[in-house]
Design a protein that fits this description.
The chain has 54 residues and is mainly beta. The chain has one domain. 0% of the residues lie in helices and 31% in strands. The strands form 2 sheets. A 3-stranded antiparallel beta sheet has the order 2-1-5, with no helix packed on it. It has a two-stranded antiparallel sheet with strand order 3-4. Strand 3 and strand 4 form a beta hairpin. The protein is globular. The structure holds zinc ion.
Amino acid sequence: MPLVVICPKCKHQQKTNPKKIISAVKTCVYCGHRFKIHSNIKKSRIVRRVLIKS
Ligand SMILES: [Zn+2]
């Protein structure tokens, strides 16, 4: 499932599609900050589902 994550450091949004959300670590493409991606969206402020409506 593609996700939109928000870098906690620079606040940029970017897409990611990890094979395993649990234990996934994303490296921000803007500032290089590495942060964990949480599987529980309610607990995480940095993960959002990708909503594509055209
Ligand atoms: Zn960043």
